[in-house]
Each structure stands twice: as structure tokens, then as C-alpha cells.
Amino acid sequence: MKDKKIINRMNAEPFKKRKNLSNTAVLLLITISLFVLLYVISLFMFADSNFAKYSVFFNLFNNKAYLLMLALGLTVVMITGSIDISVGGVTGLISMVIAAMLMGGVVSAMWTIPVALGIGLAFGIVQGYLVAYLDIQPFIVTLSGMFFARGMISVINTQSVPITDQLFMSWSSAKLYIPFLFNERRNGTRDIAYLTPAAIVAILVLIVMIIVLKKTKFGRSLYAIGGSTQSALLMGINVKRTKFLAHVLCGLLAGIGGLLYTLFAPSGNPGNGYGYEIDAISSSVIGGVMLTGGIGLPIGTLFGVLINALIERVVPLLGIVEASWPRIITSAFLFAFVVLQSVLVSASQKGGFKLMLPEWLRLGSKNNARHDI
Predict the structure, then answer these.
(1) Residue 141 belongs to what H/E stretch?
(2) Which of 27, 112, 245, 280 has CB atoms 3.0–4.6 Å from 71's, for a disulfide?
(3) What distance in Å separates the CA atoms of residue 316 and residue 70, rounded to the nearest whole number?
(4) What is the pTM of this model?
(5) Phi/psi of residue 138, each to 5°?
């Protein structure tokens, strides 16, 4: 009998893995389908607004390249079951530091790159150490980091600081045109799609992150820790070091995101980056990253960001001028996907969808309890 139980358990293990893979595939499929559905609906509803142009589609990505960096950082830490809500504050701090550096034309714009990456890494190292090695709750640690970054912005300058540096502005305004993707205008000219330097950097980083999470030992360790910390320890994975490196990587991506955001909006402002941590979290979750950890793909995060950009583009076309409505709608999608994740987790565990019901509504709950005992 004992041998039979052991064999049954061994046979059940592959099916458990397939369930996780199935959850990943289902969440990714829903995200991609949702984006396609929203975009097709927008094509018909706003045909007069040139929504079918290639340039409009590519601008969804151009305008949110910085958000993709923040969301990828959240994807990495959330796969381990952690969180980082400081990325919005780090973005705002980097934009203000860059603006202050370039004011007066004394410092070269080339220095903005290592400074932005250095700020992001500093936050990642400090927060990662506190979370991984001192076992402090990541929400508390990164909340403190967000408040610190916000406070430092006001210390540097309480007013808006425009960036006028010629080299930096040339980076900001540069465009890489895609000659074979164009639409004819009524006057006979061509509206050619293009990518900004920020978008190109974001694409390259996305490719690197796909490879890292899928092909490297570090990437597999992230998923293992998110799936079960105890199992990861039994597998010989250094959990603390991996969690530390996950937060460091998130900080680095936040540094890149801060730089790309400053290229997109070349100025330092105390309000820069406000609420971007919510946008990044929602983009990751809508993209299929499980809040409980262990499941998520960078490509899903990309589509989560595109959905965020699409909502921001469509809402004004509906005649809604209030700036907060895109975030309200995105939050509604976030809520829906959190519920969906709960449904999938519940369905994959023993008891299926019954686990979502209150005790008094579960049929045969007493019998189930006795059986479990």
C-alpha cells in the first residue's frame, strides 16, 4: 500500500507542473485576447481618429517604454512572491536629479546614464538587503523607499525644472522610422511609423529579460522560490541571495525606467512618477503575473503595458477629460485579474471552486473535513 501511494504521488508531480503551466498559458491568452479585443473595438469606434494608422499603434509603445521597464522590475520581484512599490518614487527622483544636473549646461548629458542606473541600483541594493537578509516585509521596506524618494525630490527642488540640454534633447526627439509601415495622408504624404530611442532600449531589455527568466539558472530559481520557498531550499537554491538579486534587478530596471521617462517628458517635477507603481503593478498582474508568486512571463507584462497605454489613449476619445479616469479603469481591470487569479488557484487545488465559497455554502463540507483528517 505504501509503495502504491508513493507511485501515485510521483505520477501526480508532472500534473502539478502542468497545472502551473496551464495557469500561465491561460492568463497570457486572456491578456493577449483582451488587448486584441480592445484594439479592434477601438478601430471601429474611433475610425475618424486615425486609430488604424501604424504610427498610432507604435506610439502606444513609444509613450509607455518607461512603464515597461518598471513593470518588468515588478514582474521579477512578484515572481518570487515579493513586491516593490518604490519604483514610481525612484522614477520621479531620477527625473529631478537629471534636470538638476543639466541645469546650467555644466555637466554632460552622458553622465545622466550612470547616475540614473546608480540611483536605481542603490535603492535595489538597500531594499533587497533589508527584505532578503533581515526578513523585513517588502511592502514596508519599499513603502519607506517610496517616501524617501518623494522627500528627496522636494529637497532637490520644489519647482518644475525644464531640461534644455541640446544632447539630451536630441536623444529625446530622435526617431527611427520604419519605411515599410506607413499610411497615406489625404494630402499625399506618408505617415510613417517610428520608434523612439526609449522604445528601442525597452525592446532590447525585454528580450534580455525573456532570455534571463527562461534560459538561466537565476530565472528558474525565481520561479522555484515563488512556487515554494521550502521546496527551493530543498533544491539547494540560495533563497536569500536570489531574493536580494531580484530586488537589485528591479532597482536597476527602475533606474532605466527613470531615464526613459525623462527622455519622454524632459523635465524635473515634484509630481513626476506619482502613482506609477500602481500602473506597473497593474500592468504586471494584467499581464499574467501571479501575486502569490511562481507564475508570470515578460511577454505578458508587455501586453499588460499595451493595455494600459490603450486605455489612456481611448478614454479621452470617449469625451472623458478627467485625468484620473484611465487609472480608475486600469484599477478595475487589475481587480478583475486578481479575482481571476484567485479562481484559477482555487480551481487547481483540492476542492476546486468550492474553496471560493463560504464554509456554510460548501456542499458536504463536514464530510470533506472528516476525509481530510
Answers:
(1) helix 138-156
(2) 280
(3) 24
(4) 0.86
(5) -60, -35
